[in-house]
Amino acid sequence: MNTKTWKNKALSLCLVIATVTTYSMVALANPNNIVGEILVSNSTASVNVNGEAVQSGRSIFSSSTIITPNNTDAVVNLGTTGKVKLDSESTIKDLTFDSENLTGTLVNGKITVMSSANGVNTVINIGEVATLKLSPNTSVALTFDGNKITGDLLAGEVIALNTSKSINIKTVNGKVKTLNTGDKAKAVQDDDDDDDGGAAIIWGLVLAGAGAIILYAALRNDNDIVLGGGTTVVSPVR
Q: Which residues, in sequence order, are bridge partners of residue 123?
């Protein structure tokens, strides 16, 4: 092979590298793109990220699939976009994120998702059977065993966007709400199911307060009670 051919090949290779580098820099310069960091509970353990063994402190890029082994938890810190915690023996697929969106699919196990306060669109798929949208400042732990979906809503609010399986969500006060498509749950339950009881309590307090006022007025006026309409009730003879 002559020198000219080598030079042409070298020049072509340089052009390819320059092109790839340029596009990579443009992509990273996009203000919406962010890079996460993974923190592993065991400093000597590793988790599987896109088929590679990764230890604590490594960068995590969008569209990653993360698998945690036995006895090892991991947290993916995405800064102001949110956080995702994986319990041991859990898998999240296509964890995709930027400054405006956070999505992923819980394949199996348990994850805890903490959404941003900055209005980031946070949506979590559960297998291929359910989708949950998180309101800002929401923290929810979701468990999926391939069949049953359960969750603990620690703060905020979630809504079921599309489900072929019901999602049983436990709220802060210990109540369990079953979510189907279009249903929502709040961490502090205030469902319509409680409205009648709440109204009864309020009315009871109102009536008790009214009775206390009447009693106070009676004692203050030395047992002389004046009712509306101009009618006077005279107290017993002193």
A: 103, 133
